[in-house]
Amino acid sequence: MGAPMGFHKLGYCYDQGIGVPQDDAKALEWYRKGADAGASLSAYNLSVFYEGGRGVAKDDAAAIRWLRQAAEAGLPIAQNQLGSRLKQGKGTPKDLAGAIEWFSRAADAGFVTAQANLAAMYEKGEGVPEDQTKARQLYAAAAAHGLSVAQYQLASMMEQGRGGPADPPAPTPCSSPPRANCPLRRKRLPRSKSLSQRRTWKRGSASMTKPAAASQKDANRKKNLYG
Question: What's the pTM?
Answer without folding.
Answer: 0.72
